[in-house]
Amino acid sequence: MTLFLVRHGRSAPRPGVPAHKWELDPVGFDEVWALRESGRLPDAAVWFCSPESKATATAQLLTEAEIGVVDALREHVRESGDWIDDFTGTVARAFAEPDSPAYDGWEPLAACRDRVVRAVRGILDVHRGEDVVLVGHGTAWTVLVAELTGREPDLARWRSLAMPDLIVVEA
C-alpha cells in the first residue's frame, strides 16, 4: 500500500483572513492539472481530503473518483488573519516547540500532529492494502510523514514544498 500526500494547489491569500478560509487561486489550476496528467498519482485509489476549500478544490481537479472529506485532515489551525512577515521562522518555532502555540491563535503543532496521525491511521486501517491519496496541507503532511517514518520533521522539505506538490510514503 502506498500513501500519496498531495499538498493543495496555489492559494489566493487574503490579508486579514485566516489561511484556512483562503480559496484555490484559479491562476494555479494548470499546475494542478499538470500533476494530474504527470502519471505520479495512482489510477486506482481511495481519495480523502481536508475540508478546507483549497484542498477540496484541488482534489476535485485531480480526480473523478469519490472524495471523502475528513475534518481532522485540516491544516495546522492558525486562527489569526495577521500577515506574519517571518512566517517561515514562526512555523520553525512551532516545530521546535510543538506543545506551545508559536503565535497568537495558533494551535500547538503537537495537537495538529495528533489529530492528523489519528485520522490517517484510521483511514489506513479501513483501506488496508489499497493505495490512498490524501489532499491537504504542507505542515500537516510534514508532521504526519515524521510520525509514520519515525524521523524528525523535515523542515527543509516543508520549505521546498510547491503548490501543488506530492509526497509518497510506502505504508
Summary?
The protein has 171 residues and is of the alpha/beta class. It contains six helices and seven strands.
Give an account of the 3D structure:
The protein is of the alpha/beta class and 171 residues long. It has helices spanning 29-37, 53-62, 87-96, 109-126, 138-149, 155-160, and strands spanning 2-7, 11-12, 23-24, 46-49, 67-69, 132-136, 165-170. The protein has one domain (2-170): 3-Layer(aba) Sandwich (Rossmann fold). Helices cover 38% and strands 16% of the residues. It has a 5-stranded mixed sheet. A two-stranded antiparallel ribbon has the order 2-3.
Structural class: alpha/beta
Shape: globular
**What's the total number of strands?**
7
Number of helices: 6
Which architecture does the CATH hierarchy give at level 2? 3-Layer(aba) Sandwich
Low-confidence stretches: none
Key structural traits:
single chain, alpha/beta, Rossmann fold, two-stranded antiparallel ribbon, globular
What is this structure's SSE topology?
Elements: E1 2-7, E2 11-12, E3 23-24, H1 29-37, E4 46-49, H2 53-62, E5 67-69, H3 87-96, H4 109-126, E6 132-136, H5 138-149, H6 155-160, E7 165-170
Parallel strand pairs: 1-6, 4-5, 4-6
Antiparallel strand pairs: 1-7, 2-3
